[in-house]
Each structure stands twice: as C-alpha cells, then as structure tokens.
C-alpha cells in the first residue's frame, strides 16, 4: 500500500514535518485538546438521553434472598444512613437492588432482615425478605406467579452489582406476609478460635449450662433506648468441634483450631461475644464452668460484672432457618446449565480463598522460622521459642495471667480478679431510669431554646434545675 508521501522529496517531507509541529504546538491546538469532550462526558450525555425506566410495566412479588458476606471491612450489617463514611452490608445491597431496577425504593419494598450483625462480623446464612420486580408483565391477567425457572435471574443480576465480599447465594418465592425476622425459626452462629492453652473439655462443660431457656442479661450489652422487656432467650444447642480442613499441628502447640457452633431461636445485642469471653476464661482455667451457671442466675447476680466481650473477627452468622421456603441456587435449577450461578459463586470464593490461604501460609512460614529461634532461660540454658511457648503456663512466673480475646488477640493482666468479684454494671432498671432522666433533660433543653432562653453551663445544669423548680414552687404557693 503506497503512502501519499512516497513521492515527496526530502525537502518537501521536512517542510511537512515543520508544518505539523507548528500546528500541534499552537495555542489553538491546546485549546481544542482541553475542550475536547472525554469518553466519560459522552457517556453521561448518552445516559441523560435515556428514557426513565417504567416499573409500572411489571408486577412485583415477595422473595427471600440468602446473602453471604465478609464483614471485616464494614461497619456492621444494618445501614447507618451514611454509606460514604460508615459503609454497611445493607448499604451495598440497597445500592445493588436500586441499580438493577429490582425495586423502585427501599422504603416501598417491605424490606425485612433476619438479624443485625455487628461491625466486623461475617454472615453465610443471612436472609432478607423484599418485594421485587417480577418478569411477569402488569398486562398479564394470569393470577399465578411465575415459576422460579421463568423468573429474572435474581442471583446473577445482584452479584454483578455487588462488591467481591458480598454475594447472593440463593432466592426463594415467599408469601406476601413473609418477615425475615419474625418467621425465622432458628439462627446458628459459629465462632472460630485456636486452642492455645485452653482445656476444651472444661469449655464443653460450660456450654452445657448455656443450653435451654435462660435470662441472658449478664451476657449482653443493654440499650435502655430499645426498652427490652425480656432478656430470656432459648439456646437450642452449643457444641465445640475441631475445624475441618485445617492442618496446623506442625506450627506449634495449641495452634489447632476449633469452632463453637451455637444455635438459638434469637439473640441479644453482643450476646454471643460475651458468652465466648467467659468461655475463654473457663478454658484457660481462670474460671470454673459453674461461673456460667451463676451468671445465668439473676437472683444471685442481678447485674452484669465488668468483663469485656470477645473479638468480632471470628464470628459468623452461619445459618437462618425458615419453614416452607424452597431455595433456588441458580437461574434454572431444573434444566442443565454448563455454568450455573452456584458454580460461578464457588469459583469467585475459591479465587478469594486462594489469595487468603497464600497469605496465611506466608505468615505460617514466618511463624515456624521464628519458632526455631533461641531463648535464654534463667538457668542459662537455651530453648527454642516453640519450647518456651509450650512450657509457659497461663499464669507466668511473675503472676501475669494471659486471657484470650479471640481473633488472635490476648490480654495480659498483672493480677487476675474473678468475674464474680468484679465491679457490677448498672442493672437494667437503673439504666432505664437514667435514660428517662437524660431524655427529660434533653426535652427541657429543647423547650428552653425554643422559647429563646439561654442554657446554663453543663456543670451548673443540676443546680440550675433545682433552683428553677424551687422558684416555680414558691410562685405557685
């Protein structure tokens, strides 16, 4: 293919180059480059010309979605209405539902969730109920809903819009009055921990005290604003088993992992993490298993002793059970699909798992290497770090106690004080009384500001209120 410059002489070519360079370096060229529309702006103009989506052309139906998520990077499950500053799992789900045009608004979709999980807690069995757009047109007069295999591919549609650490696992047709919260018959949590110096049999004995119906006010965080009327909850089962598919015995003593599987009808705020905190104390031999029994006796211990809750990192909402729901795990479970949604979800999780396992193996190699380093003992003999850890007890020679907090974290206390001997938190009744006082004070402040008055300094508020009350009493008399 011949070029139009093939017959140019050397002088002509040089002249042409000078002309092009002058044009490129001219102010006019720079201005054209600056004002040239970018691809993103073109896309915005195209988007603005699109006609709005008409949801009224479709019918809606109530469905349940089973959602899995890694909660480590989120501020809990429930939205805090600040998605940019405090992102939550629910924020991501709402964004995906709206982007997919499955709902017109969350407020009008009759949305319910099975439970709230705290900041950092993960979920494998979270379930939500929601009214979504159906593939069935509004003009279709057939009163029957579409069968699952003819509906929208809800799983694939949602997963394309969700971040990597959140996935919809399945969907199910649900009755119109379905509530993910109130129709749930049981919830199962799992909590993972490494054995360390803990006695698993002692921990299992403590678990037996948790089973059954008990008042768990000493194993939760109280919020007087919620006005909880009953702290009784029913624990159906609680057991401890080795974690499957892990081999860490060569890393050192106590590096094998266990899981607590806890099944109940419902749970209080932070209940599982407070239960695990006491369970770790029992495992370390710092508390007898009977401490659990005593803390569940409200007459003996009417208010919670001051002890911290365990880490959020190892806690997973593992399963939520419902009667009558038939789950669909792929777009079409009744016809062969060479690449079903469940397989794509598996591949997605496998990729993330492989990356995390490589990180864990890297740390494990570091750990094993450092474990062979020498440690000088008080009698001038030398041990390896692994032998030093093996021989070191829960209580050190200096009297310092090691208390596991879960997630690899530990607390070291100069002198351990029994849970039953620790200071007590306010009782539920006292917390509610204080809350009512604060609420009344807030209303009084708002009334003063609304009337144009000035508030006294905070430190003088109590005496100011008393003087004001005395003046009112004198004037009325």
Describe what you observe in this structure:
Residues 206-322 form the Pseudouridine synthase I TruA alpha/beta domain. Residues 407-420 have a biased composition (Basic and acidic residues). InterPro entries: PsdUridine_synth_cat_dom_sf, PsdUridine_synth_TruA, PsdUridine_synth_TruA_a/b_dom, PsdUridine_synth_TruA_C, Pus3-like, TruA/RsuA/RluB/E/F_N. The chain is of the alpha+beta class and 477 residues long. Among the domains are: 55-173, Pseudouridine synthase I, catalytic domain, N-terminal subdomain (Alpha-Beta Plaits); 185-321, Alpha-Beta Plaits (2-Layer Sandwich); 429-464. Helices cover 34% and strands 20% of the residues. The protein contains twelve helices and 13 strands. The protein has helices at residues 10-24, 27-35, 39-49, 89-99, 154-161, 200-210, 271-283, 290-295, 341-371, 385-391, 428-450, 461-476, and strands at residues 58-69, 112-113, 122-137, 166-173, 184-194, 212-215, 232-242, 257-264, 315-322, 374-376, 382-384, 401-406, 409-413. The strands form three sheets. Strands 1, 2, 3, 4, 5, 6, 7, 8 and 9 form a nine-stranded mixed sheet that branches. The chain has a two-stranded antiparallel sheet with strand order 10-11. α6 (200-210) packs antiparallel against α7. The radius of gyration is 32 Å and the shape is globular. It starts with 9 loop residues before the first helix and ends with a helix.
């Amino acid at each position: 293919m011949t070029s139009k410059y093939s017959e140019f002489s050397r002088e002509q070519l040089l002249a042409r180059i000078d002309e092009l360079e002058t044009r490129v370096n001219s102010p006019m060229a720079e201005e054209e480059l600056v004002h040239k529309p970018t691809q993103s702006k073109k896309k915005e103009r195209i988007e603005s010309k699109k006609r709005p989506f008409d949801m009224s052309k479709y019918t809606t139906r109530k469905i349940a979605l089973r959602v899995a998520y890694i909660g480590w990077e989120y501020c809990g499950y429930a939205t805090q209405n600040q998605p940019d500053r405090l992102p939550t799992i629910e924020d991501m789900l709402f964004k995906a539902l709206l982007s997919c045009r499955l709902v017109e608004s969350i407020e009008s979709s009759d949305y319910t969730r099975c439970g709230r999980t705290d900041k950092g807690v993960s979920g494998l069995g979270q379930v939500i109920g929601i009214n979504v757009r159906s593939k069935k047109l509004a003009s279709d007069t057939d009163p029957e809903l579409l069968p699952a295999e003819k509906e929208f591919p809800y799983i694939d549609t949602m997963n394309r819009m969700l971040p990597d650490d959140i996935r919809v696992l399945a969907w199910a047709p649900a009755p119109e009055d379905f509530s993910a919260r109130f129709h749930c018959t049981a919830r199962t949590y799992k909590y993972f921990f490494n054995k360390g110096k803990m006695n698993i049999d002692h921990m299992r004995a403590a678990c037996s005290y948790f089973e059954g119906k008990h008042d768990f006010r000493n194993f939760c965080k109280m919020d007087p604003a919620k006005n909880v009327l009953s702290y009784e909850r029913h624990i159906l089962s609680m057991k401890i088993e080795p974690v499957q598919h892990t081999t860490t015995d060569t890393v050192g003593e106590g590096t094998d992992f266990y899981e607590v599987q806890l099944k109940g009808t419902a749970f209080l705020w932070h209940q599982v993490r407070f239960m695990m905190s006491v369970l770790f104390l029992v495992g370390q031999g710092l508390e007898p298993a009977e401490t659990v029994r005593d803390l569940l006796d409200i007459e003996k211990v009417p208010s919670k002793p001051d002890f911290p809750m365990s880490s959020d990192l190892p806690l997973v909402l593992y399963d939520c059970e419902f009667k009558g729901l038939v789950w669909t795990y792929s777009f079409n479970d009744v016809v062969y699909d060479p690449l079903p949604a469940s397989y794509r979800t598996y591949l997605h999780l496998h990729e993330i798992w492989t990356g995390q396992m490589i990180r864990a193996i890297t740390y494990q190699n570091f750990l094993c290497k450092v474990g062979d380093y020498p440690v000088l003992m008080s009698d001038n003999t030398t041990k390896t770090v692994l032998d030093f850890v093996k021989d070191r007890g829960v209580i050190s020679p200096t009297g310092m106690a090691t208390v596991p907090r879960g997630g690899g974290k530990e607390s070291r206390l100069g002198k351990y004080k029994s849970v039953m001997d620790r200071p007590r938190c306010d009782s539920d009744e006292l917390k509610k009384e204080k809350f009512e006082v604060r609420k009344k004070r807030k209303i009084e402040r708002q009334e003063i500001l609304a009337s144009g008055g000035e508030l006294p300094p905070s430190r003088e508020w109590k005496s100011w209120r008393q003087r004001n009350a005395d003046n009112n009493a004198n004037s009325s008399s």
